[in-house]
Specification:
By secondary structure, the chain is an alpha/beta fold. The chain is built from 13 helices and twelve strands. The strands form two sheets. A six-stranded parallel beta sheet has the order 2-1-3-4-5-6, sandwiched between helices. A six-stranded parallel beta sheet has the order 9-8-7-10-11-12, with helices on both faces.
Amino acid sequence: MRYRISELQRLWPIAKRRICSSIVACVHRVFSNEKILKNVFGKRSGKRVLLCHLPEAFKFRQLPKYHSNFTECHVIARCFDRLGYIVDCSSRAKTGIDYSPYDIVCGINGNAYMGSFSSDAGINPLRIFYSVGAETCFNYRCTSMRNIEFRERHGHWLLGANRYIPGDPRNYYEARFSDAVICLGDSYVLRQFLNEECDATMYHQLSAFYFKVVDEAADKDFVACRRNILWFGSSGMLHKGLDIAIDFAVSHPEFTLHICGGSRQESDFWRYYGPVIESHDNIVMHGFVDIESKEYAAVLSQCGILLNPSVSEGGAVSVLNVLGNAPMFPVYSKGTGLDLSAVGVEVANVAYRDFEEALLAVDSLSPGEFSRKAWAAYHTVRDNYTLEKYEEGMYNCLKGIIDKNR
């Protein structure tokens, strides 16, 4: 009897996990029949695609610009429409969806969990994963090293101010079990995926885009603003290097740091840095700033340097939105997923000393060289990262994937 009890005790944790998983799967099947937005463009005939992204993107009269994902969803749908497909949209691929009408399932949410398409049932759509972040394993390693670098510098952990897995942990599987992957970002981002995957032919690179909110940038007094630094970002503040920006402003009071954004949900970051910010007059907190507002234009006019020490992105739209609307000297990490090295300073290692050295080197430039690089960054983004080029790139990626898999 003792033997049987000990066996039950040993097996209980395993059984418990399986029972819990079965219950979760059952609840998921019962409640996952979400309403799909059908035929978003009212097309009369054609093959059908299920776009797993943001159905609410088709309910706006004018797409908002506080995040690029609404526009990205609309662009993908328009490209499929041009390719002759009827587009349905769901927020996430789920097991409760009937996939039999679809020739393609495409999107950012849940492609690897589509009910394990059964060839016996004749359900085998082409699966396309749109990756808007860095490769999952690469991102996890980078963000873990950022934790360690901060701990070594400050003797304190800020574990809640990081992005360990971009978007959703299932992205790791989606990238590997889809038939094709579109990677947002530059060749550096693409290499992260290729380093983890042997089949390079299924990966396609696509550059990010910016929102034009200023028709033409006005002249700027770079002598007056060159020591004003802008950090513009959202959640994952250690991940995006806000600590580096603040520490630099504390150590170099001759510079002024403007902070736009920053998630208030990351309370451990603010508990640590809140008193630091309040006690330094050369650190200005703007909070969330609408890029279509007068406040945003005013901040851009005040700043001469854009600082972005992010460890990993899928093409940092926040950087493009700044540089595409005002001339500014970019000091940024390779991890932003942008190649602006010809018009700014790209820092390979996201560590305080490396960025401090880069910022001081920029400060030593002549006014003419500083101004020339700032304007060059502005024109580079304006010429190469437009929404029109993004849409044409997306269309070519999707067409190439479809043609290859026919």
